[in-house]
């Protein structure tokens, strides 16, 4: 069974486990600015959701900064910018091989 991080956390919440607040996005970031007002921060953590490990140490096919698929953001105005740069991009990690995997889902969490 393959679960994304945000899906696993949804399951854990059903058992009242203490988890950080977060919001998942699938192919669409329309509500991101409104949602950020409800997520404690700074910082916020923008996490690419692909079925592969090493997301934080990976890199994007279309680079937009020198960071990987998990980024800690201090400036609220930069969260949508980073999220838009990740969504639809190809994330390459040690587990994906050179072809990488397309990022169709993001998880934004309080830091």
Automatic annotation (TrEMBL):
SUPFAM superfamilies assigned to the protein according to its UniProt record, in alphabetical order: Glutathione synthetase ATP-binding domain-like (SSF56059)
Listed GO MF terms: ATP binding; succinate-CoA ligase (ADP-forming) activity
Pfam families: ATP-grasp_2
InterPro entries in the record: ATP-grasp_succ-CoA_synth-type, ATP_grasp_subdomain_1
GO cellular component, one term: cytosol
Sequence intervals crossing the membrane: none
Domain ATP-grasp fold succinyl-CoA synthetase-type: 2-110
A GO biological process held by the record: succinyl-CoA metabolic process
Name of protein: ATP-grasp fold succinyl-CoA synthetase-type domain-containing protein
Species in which this protein is naturally found: marine metagenome
């Amino acid at each position: 069974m393959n679960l994304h991080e945000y899906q696993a956390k949804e399951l854990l919440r059903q058992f009242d486990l203490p988890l950080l607040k977060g919001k998942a996005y699938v192919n669409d970031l329309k509500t991101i600015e409104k949602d950020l007002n409800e997520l404690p921060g700074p910082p916020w953590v923008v996490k690419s959701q692909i079925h592969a490990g090493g997301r934080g140490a990976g890199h994007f096919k279309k680079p937009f900064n020198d960071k990987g698929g998990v980024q800690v953001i201090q400036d609220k105005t930069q969260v949508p910018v980073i999220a838009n740069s990740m969504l639809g991009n190809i994330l390459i990690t040690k587990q994906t091989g050179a072809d990488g995997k397309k990022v169709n889902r993001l998880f934004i969490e309080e830091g």
